[in-house]
Amino acid sequence: MCLERNRAVAFEPSPVLTTVLSERIALNGVDDRLDVVQKAIGAAEGQLWGSTHASGFIELHREPHNADDFLVEVTTIDRESERLGVIPDILKIDIEGFEYEALVGANRVLQESQPIVFLELHLDILEHRDVAPRAVCGILQEHGYKFYTSLGRPLAASRVYNSANAVLRCVARV
Predict the structure, then answer these.
(1) Does residue 80 fall inside a structural domain?
(2) Are 40 and 75 in contact (CB under 8 A)?
């Protein structure tokens, strides 16, 4: 395997965390292989309003909530794959309860290249947003994906979407 050809792209909508991430990438000497794009990943291209918490995390919403809110560019995995000329082998999705939207916006990539998906499901946030965790799993299942623990053991989809955990990490692959 030729490491020089390996490349990663991280999407981070928070201006604060984009700066921190870029500093850490440079500190670790991987800035030639890891690009940071200051955009949110969603179901469709567009813009949302964002507000930054003290932690640096960003909260997205359709309308501004206060004077400090700012517009956040939203893109899709399909669009970025096309724009960057990248066919991903791996997707790592950890986007604090917006996993459904990310997968909706990855339809072509999931269908055509079938990357391994490392998924951190924020079941509590999904339910708070009235997004059924079962629907997240359903998108992957429609593309022939099966679920596994991080140790590679098979995991029934029902154990994923019915988990009592607030956050569940799993791997999905075809």
Answers:
(1) no
(2) yes
Phi then psi dihedrals of residue 99, to 5 deg = -60, -40
* Within a domain: 82: no
Query: Which helix H or strand E contains 109, and what residues bound it?
Result: helix 107-112
Same domain, 28 and 67: yes
What pLDDT is attached to residue 2?
47
The residue whose two tokens read 């072509």 is 108
pTM (whole model) above 0.70: yes
Average pLDDT over the chain, rounded to an integer: 93
DSSP letter, residue 104: H
Q: How many domains does the chain have?
A: 2
Q: Span 130-150, mean pLDDT?
A: 97
Where are the extended beta strands (E) located within the chain?
8-11, 34-37, 40-41, 46-52, 58-61, 70-75, 90-93, 116-122, 146-148, 154-155, 167-173
Domain span including residue 60: 1-75
Residue 108 lies in a domain: yes
Q: What is the pLDDT of residues 38-80, one digit of tens each?
A: 999 999 999 999 998 888 888 888 899 888 999 999 999 999 9
pLDDT band at 1 (very low <50, low <70, confident <90, very high): very low
Pairwise CA distance, residues 50 & 60, whole Å: 5
3-class SS of residue 123: helix
